[in-house]
Amino acid sequence: MAEETVYLDCEDFKLEGLLEERPGERALIMCHPHSLYGGEMHNQVVEAVIRAYAEKGYTTLRFNFRGVGGSGGSYGEGIAETKDVKAALGFLWDRGKKEIDLGGYSFGAWVCARGLDDFEEASRLIMVSPPVSAMDMGFLTFHPKIKLVIAGSRDDIGDPTTIQEMVKVWNPDAGFKVIEGADHFYGGKTDRIQSIIREFLERAD
Description:
Blueprint: E1 4-10, E2 13-20, E3 26-31, H1 44-55, E4 59-63, H2 81-94, E5 99-105, H3 107-114, E6 122-128, E7 146-152, H4 160-170, E8 175-179, H5 190-204
Parallel strand pairs: 3-4, 3-5, 5-6, 6-7, 7-8
Antiparallel strand pairs: 1-2, 2-4
Helix pairs in contact: 1-5
């Protein structure tokens, strides 16, 4: 199967996305890193997570946040971007996807966490390198939907020691995995992300 370009209605503009639809109710929405620093849906970490979910038969959707690529609108400091995630959830829900995982990498993880209380359609949240060393994540307290957090041992934007302590607050039952030798960009390490996600889905299913 191949991804197809789709456009999601959001406020008075559209968001550009890539959808690979499969039978069943299970789906993933994967959110990209920071819009102001070159972040977009064509990203190797985003793609690694998508590949792992696709292997397990999930429908996958990635999209560009407002103001990125072919998406309308303009950067909303991460706050308005929660509306983009909500639009993506509604898009999949309307297509019969009722078991939707949210995934976010770096800024994408921050946005997903920021709006998690409003994302009723989301079943679980997976975060890769939540940017605890660069953005305030003090707003995030315990949430049962947080199920897996991945960090790089050499990540100076998402310090793994800080993340480990925060996971104890976010959800002490969540999985926490550190990829040795990986910095924030996971060069040469995306296969490890894929295998961690694959193992998580096998256990969860």
